[in-house]
Amino acid sequence: MGRPEEGLRVPRELVKLLSRPRGRVLLLGTVQPDGDLLGSQIGLGLALANAGTPVTLAGPHPVPDVFRFLPGAALVERWEVATGSFDVVILVDCPDPSRTGGLLEGVRGATTSVVNIDHHPDNKGYGTVNWIEPEASATGEMVYDLIPALGFKVTAEIATNLFTALHTDTGSFRYSNTTARTLRIAADLVAQGARPAAVAGALYEGRRVEDLRRLADLLGRVEVSPDGQVAWLLLPHGSVPESFLEAEDLVTYPRSIASVKAAFLLREVGAGRVKVSLRAKGEVNVGKIAAAFGGGGHANAAGCTILGSLSEARDALLRAVADALGKR
Questions:
Q1: Which of 204, 242, 268, 312 has its CB surrounded by the most CB atoms within 10 Å?
Q2: Which of 204, 230, 256 represents a domain boundary (last residue)?
Q3: Global pTM?
Q4: Helix, strand, or coil here: 64?
Q5: Neighbour count for residue 269 (Cβ, 10 Å)
Q6: Is residue 168 domain-shared with residue 295, that is, in the same domain?
Q7: What whole-number distance in Å separates Cα of residue 53 and Cα of residue 269?
């Protein structure tokens, strides 16, 4: 199978910089890395390494257990502080440099070239070279076009990483960001060695019995608005292990209710701080709602942090969603 005919236009300056990068090269991740970030980061890192470029992969948080199956995941180092400056720093799927936990500032020297590759529409354009494609289903879709543009080969290991990036950011190809091109790319990645059954098995069929029981308990706590259009789940601080949250995209469960148009997960992460994950089905732009609280994201998937208690954050979001639905 050949590559899909229509491809994204990779910026010429990006090809020039990465086809033969000079000096120290770092692929830098963010806090709470997801499948798209890791698949893109590791996939591009392997492509550069296979082409003879020494690269370092790192981030402020470790690779979640659920993604340790990715070929090359062991290469991603966890850094609490930066280890010196790099000549080229590549960030993928990172709309806001603050998500690097301060590491970007620590590795950025006076002559460092920062490459910013992302599909989030609210990307802050912080790079020396910025390639932003909001129409791409995932950043992995962009890396899929970037690698051959650099003259590099997509191996089975790289294909697995990029397939995982697409698979996770499209909700297993269920979300509205799944396009015909997305599916053609996925098919080509399978032809190049990605194994969908193996990826799905690693992502969804590795639960422990205690995690399944914990999930059952949490599903019983899902709340729904009287009109059935909004659903949410509240998680007090320390109520579930971090590893469980990394493996379960909990907000998808309230979103799956037939009548629901917007759903959110509220997780208390400290005294007076609530982390929010928002999802929608097309009638509510949760990206705008998240932006109003200092966050951001896509129209159907976004996030933010709200200062206050769980109940205060819930009430504020319910008001915002009601406004978006024209209920007030």
A1: 268
A2: 204
A3: 0.92
A4: coil
A5: 12
A6: no
A7: 39
Say if CB 328 and CB 266 are below 8 A apart: no
Are 185 and 225 part of one and the same domain?
Answer: no
Structure tokens at 249: 């995209």
* Residue 58: closest CA among 72, 76, 75: 76
Helix, strand or coil, per DSSP, at residue 77: strand
CB atoms within 10 A of CB 22: 10
CB 114 within 8 A of CB 128: yes
The pLDDT tens digits for 140-170 are 999 999 999 999 999 999 999 999 999 999 9
Q: Widest CA span of the chain, in angstroms?
A: 59
Q: Find the angle CA(94)-CA(176)-CA(97) to the nearest 5 degrees.
A: 10
Residues composing the chain: 328
Residue 4 lies inside a defined structural domain of this protein: no
Give the range of the structural domain holding residue 223, as residue numbers without chain letter.
Answer: 210-324
Look up residue 320 and give its two tokens: 């915002």
What is the Cα Rg of the chain in Å?
20
How far apart CA 114 and CA 28 sit, in angstroms, is: 10
d(CA 26, CA 54): 9
Domain count, the chain: 2
Q: Is 226 helix (H, G, I), strand (E, B) or coil?
A: coil
184 alpha-carbon distance from chain centroid:
21
Q: In terms of domains, do 75 and 117 share one?
A: yes
Cβ neighbours, 10 Å, residue 2: 7
pLDDT digits (tens, 9 = 90+) for 236-279: 999 999 889 988 999 999 999 999 999 999 999 988 999 999 99
Which residues touch 239 (CB under 8 Å, ≥6 apart)?
none
Residue where a domain terminates, one of 148, 172, 204 = 204
Is residue 23 included in any domain, yes or no? yes
- Mean pLDDT calculated for residue range 280-299: 94
Contact 71, 252 (CB under 8 A): no
